[in-house]
Q: What sequence folds into this?
């Protein structure tokens, strides 16, 4: 079976989970079964059968993340990449910190505050030779903090939090597949292009797709997953949601 490299974006401070993140990185905050986000991400990746190595992009409290993940090297090879600009930039620049590893092998990217059922990584895999593919779900209601997705017919035209609710057709999960040598180069080259522009220093990495759509007329593929098969942990109530729906499933 074909295997992929997984990039996990874990450089941020997680201020919305204070005081839990005062002395602990967001990815290491304890959940209901005494596990944490990072452990669940690593185990899900290792059990997926499609990921054979992990690159964790760190910044805030990087020493704690490095020390924690070292205990899982027997499950799957894990490397850390440090973003020295984490305190003055957003996660587009975190992704840039690892951009040169993207030219080498097909890969998957995930936000560092997402957890998934272990079958999700396999579910998003496609047999297309070339693809830049985002993962989306659909909900009954969307809110201002959702990374919303708008379409024209069946084509994605924008991914952003500022999309009006009435124009929202889906939510971006923050999980992306890039497959094929040509697609890897297009994606990585776009990251390098955007970070040269000072206007992008505080932009989310999903701006890569907006730029590809608008500037390159690139069609972005997408894959649906069920909204109950993943959870973003941004606020305190999210931890309670994980306790209810994930503890028995992961």
A:
């Amino acid at each position: 079976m074909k295997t992929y490299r997984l990039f996990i974006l874990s450089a941020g401070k997680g201020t919305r989970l204070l005081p839990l993140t005062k002395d602990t990185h967001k990815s290491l905050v304890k959940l209901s079964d005494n596990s944490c986000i990072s452990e669940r991400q690593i185990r899900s990746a290792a059990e997926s059968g499609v990921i054979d190595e992990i690159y964790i992009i760190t910044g805030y409290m990087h020493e704690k993340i490095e020390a924690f993940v070292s205990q899982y090297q027997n499950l799957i090879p894990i490397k850390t990449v440090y973003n020295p600009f984490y305190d003055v930039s957003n996660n587009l620049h975190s992704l840039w910190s690892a951009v040169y590893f993207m030219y080498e092998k097909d890969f998957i990217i995930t936000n560092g505050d997402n957890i998934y059922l272990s079958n999700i990584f396999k579910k998003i895999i496609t047999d297309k030779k070339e693809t830049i593919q985002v993962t989306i779900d659909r909900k009954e209601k969307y809110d201002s903090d959702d990374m919303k997705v708008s379409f024209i017919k069946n084509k994605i035209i924008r991914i952003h939090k500022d999309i009006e609710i009435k124009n929202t057709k889906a939510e971006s999960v923050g999980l992306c597949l890039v497959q094929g040598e040509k697609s890897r180069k297009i994606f990585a080259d776009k990251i390098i292009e955007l970070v040269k522009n000072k206007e992008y220093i505080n932009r989310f990495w999903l701006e890569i797709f907006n730029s590809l759509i608008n500037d390159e007329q690139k069609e972005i593929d997408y894959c649906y997953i069920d909204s109950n098969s993943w959870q973003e942990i941004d606020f305190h109530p999210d931890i309670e949601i994980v306790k209810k729906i994930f503890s028995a499933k992961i």
Observations:
- The radius of gyration is 17 Å.
- The chain has a mean pLDDT of 90.
